[in-house]
């Protein structure tokens, strides 16, 4: 569908009306529907009558019956569970509790616009990218990479949206890395995932001040539970339709759920280091992926905690892995530890650090912006490190 999205504002609060009118003025493709116009709007933004909510829900049901394609956003300061359930039953697709931030309203309007486009058969359905992150062994920093990659994607694609999904149910650390105490989680989807829609998922997400959204796992390291692959697929498919990037922390466990993530992913980041046992595990993991039919070009081996002073033989490692190395994250223990302890992405603490820049290069190499001229993030490293190989390191890697 091309052209404008017609929006009907039914807001009795003058402050709310002014907020939305100002917001629509910044988006020429979104047009407020004239009061006397006929026909149905593409989007209805309606404020709940808190003295008699039944009146509002009756209006919504009437519109849904006569114009099922109209997308509805409900806003209210009364955000209790009963109102949310009544809104879902009436057909509301977006719920915006008052007070809300400009960014929250922008994101809600963006999702509504996408649904309007999706409702037209001639339109292409917008789809985000899923990026799976899995470590060759435990303790290699997959969670840290997930958080910092997500933040860097926001930096290099500042008009895009990013959500992190914590699928490492035996070591769920993403909330800790962002200093978030979530009230909802993926665990709430598992029991009845088939009835979960975009609105339900959106209300499970936590938002970090950086702009990142997070869906925590809700499990702990003592759990013996597993997630259904169908639940994972359903959840990620919903998130992919809502966000530009879905970055999934799979930990170091390759089970049926993480296999599902990898099948849906446009890129799979394999976190490794230059330690011999880790390189061996990385080789086994790459072989396993290829045996699963995973395209080689989707597999991105990222060497974490890289120290150029070690003069490790990169070329020999590539020969052993039979796979190109994609990117390097430098070893900056003090800064990485400080970021974790403060519950912040590295870029929030040290925006000009080598660690921040390496994450941003990784994000740029994965982003749509660089898709027309995408080159391996390792090229500069190989040029600068040419001639630095040592025989001792060569012998250590050659035996793999």
Radius of gyration: 24 Å
The main sheet comes to: 8 strands, mixed
Give me the strand/helix succession.
Answer: EHEEHEHEHEHEHHHEEHEHEHEHEHHHHH
Helix content: 40-55%
Layout of helices and strands:
Layout: E1 5-10, H1 14-25, E2 30-32, E3 43-47, H2 53-66, E4 71-76, H3 81-90, E5 94-97, H4 102-118, E6 129-135, H5 142-156, E7 162-166, H6 174-177, H7 187-190, H8 198-202, E8 206-207, E9 213-215, H9 229-242, E10 245-249, H10 256-264, E11 267-272, H11 276-291, E12 299-306, H12 314-321, E13 325-330, H13 333-342, H14 346-349, H15 354-366, H16 379-385, H17 391-398
Parallel strand pairs: 1-2, 1-3, 3-4, 4-5, 6-10, 6-11, 7-9, 7-10, 11-12, 12-13
Antiparallel strand pairs: 8-9
Helix pairs in contact: 2-3, 5-15, 9-10
Explain this structure to me?
The protein contains 17 helices and 13 strands. Helix 2 (53-66) runs parallel beside helix 3 (81-90), helix 5 (142-156) packs across helix 15 (354-366) and helix 9 (229-242) packs parallel to helix 10 (256-264). The strands form two sheets. An eight-stranded mixed beta sheet has the order 8-9-7-10-6-11-12-13, with helices on both faces. Strands 2-1-3-4-5 form a five-stranded parallel beta sheet, with helices on one face. The chain folds into two domains: 5-118, Response regulator (Rossmann fold), CATH 3.40.50; 129-371, Rossmann fold, CATH 3.40.50. The chain has 400 residues and is α/β, with parallel strands linked by helices.
